[in-house]
């Protein structure tokens, strides 16, 4: 893999999360996280790269990004050993199985904005190693090749999701709280019906299990979307598979995200107050029908369960990163 780092760019497909695939150049420094990397890293366990081919057992507290980077380090070691023994070695096959298993597990876990680089590295690494195998005529068995493609779809979906969390304009430092007192997020729709909860779920397009970092709120096309709290709009525009997309910074690192809008009724830099109309429900981007994808991120770029933080003073939830999907509910604003 070290030889890959020397390459300036690698062309990969990162637009699978959207309606159409978009090809672009990705580098190892692609898409820096919006959160303070030092604080983000301090919030999760650290592990040195394993020297053995097989990584040490992952901890349940490891983030998706940590799991991916550990798996890629082990993949590099195993591939090097396999090349020394020849492409017919069983290590060649095992290297692929091990890294795919680890990445498939990572996409089912709660991501953090800072994990984006790890998912991009996984995409680039797997894509290039496939090309290298074909160049060496070390072709994978058909079933394993198909599995690689399924894993790449999951990685692409996670890249799309984390790109949204790192949308242009969100790299700026979060503003101070606009008002004294507790920050309380309110419902973004007049009636909340959760059609797809937060947490692990089967992707509606691929049926693969992956992590859903927000909630899908069922609503008719054109339903009014309200600002969940006072704040400043830091992004309002197209965002790949999330279609027309809005991000509001509520201060102290808390942001709300509104996706698949049919219309955006605000603009970057606008000061909004709780209850302001910011857009209309739609089905733009990668969507199976009209709904609002609503997400909440904290000062470390971690996704919180929106249904767990609505109508609750946010200061009491500072250390909460909810990971359990909640039941579908119907409440009025």
What does this structure look like?
The protein has 333 residues and is of the alpha+beta class. The chain has two domains: 164 residues, no CATH class; 142 residues, Glucose Permease (Domain IIA) (Distorted Sandwich), CATH 2.70.70. The strands form four sheets. Strands 3, 6, 8, 9, 10, 12, 14, 15 and 16 form a nine-stranded antiparallel sheet that branches. The N and C termini lie far apart (52 Å).
Secondary structure blueprint with pairings:
Layout (H helix, E strand, L loop, with lengths): L1 H4 L4 E4 L9 E4 L10 H6 L21 H22 L4 H17 L9 H20 L6 H24 L25 E6 L2 E4 L6 E4 L2 E4 L5 E3 L4 E8 L5 E8 L2 E8 L1 E2 L6 E2 L4 E4 L10 E7 L5 E2 L1 H4 L20 E3 L1
Antiparallel strand pairs: 1-2, 3-6, 3-16, 4-5, 6-14, 7-13, 8-9, 8-12, 9-10, 10-14, 11-13, 14-15
Helix pairs in contact: 3-4, 3-5, 4-6, 5-6
Summarize the structure.
With 333 residues, this protein is of the alpha+beta class.
What structural category characterises the helix and strand content? Answer: alpha+beta
Radius of gyration from CA coordinates = 21 Å
Mean pLDDT: 75
Largest sheet: 9 strands, antiparallel
Number of helices: 7
Unreliable runs: 1-57, 319-333
- SSE order, one letter for each helix or strand: HEEHHHHHEEEEEEEEEEEEEHE
Shape: elongated
Number of strands: 16
The level of helicity is 25-40%
Distance between the termini: 52 Å
Beta percentage is: 15-25%
């Amino acid at each position: 893999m070290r030889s890959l780092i020397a390459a300036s760019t690698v062309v990969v497909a990162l637009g699978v999360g959207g309606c159409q695939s978009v090809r672009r150049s990705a580098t190892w420094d692609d898409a820096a996280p919006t959160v303070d990397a030092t604080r983000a890293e301090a919030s999760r366990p650290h592990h040195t790269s394993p020297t053995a081919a097989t990584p040490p057992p992952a901890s349940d507290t490891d983030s998706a990004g940590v799991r991916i980077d550990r798996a890629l380090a082990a993949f590099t070691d195993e591939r090097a050993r396999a090349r020394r023994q020849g492409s017919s070695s069983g290590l060649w096959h095992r290297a692929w199985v091990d890294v795919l298993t680890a990445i498939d597990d990572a996409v089912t876990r709660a991501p953090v904005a800072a994990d984006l680089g790890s998912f991009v590295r996984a995409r680039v690494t797997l894509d290039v190693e496939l090309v290298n195998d074909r160049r060496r005529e070390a072709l994978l068995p058909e079933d394993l090749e198909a599995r690689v493609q399924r894993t790449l779809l999951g990685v692409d979906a996670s890249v799309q999701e984390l790109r949204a969390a790192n949308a242009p304009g969100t790299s700026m430092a979060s503003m101070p709280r606009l008002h004294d007192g507790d920050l309380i997020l309110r419902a973004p729709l007049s009636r909340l019906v959760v059609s797809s909860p937060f947490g692990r779920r089967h992707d509606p397009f691929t049926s693969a299990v992956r992590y859903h970092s927000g909630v899908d709120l069922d609503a008719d096309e054109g339903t009014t979307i309200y600002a969940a709290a006072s704040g400043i709009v830091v992004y309002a525009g197209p965002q790949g598979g999330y279609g027309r997309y809005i991000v509001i910074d509520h201060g102290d690192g808390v942001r709300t995200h509104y996706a698949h809008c049919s219309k955006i009724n605000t603009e970057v830099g606008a000061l909004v107050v709780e209850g302001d109309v910011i857009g209309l429900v739609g089905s733009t981007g990668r969507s199976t029908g009209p709904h609002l994808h609503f997400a909440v991120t904290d000062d470390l770029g971690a996704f919180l369960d929106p249904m767990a933080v609505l109508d609750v003073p946010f200061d009491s939830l500072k250390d909460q990163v909810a990971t359990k999907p909640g039941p579908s509910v119907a409440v009025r604003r």
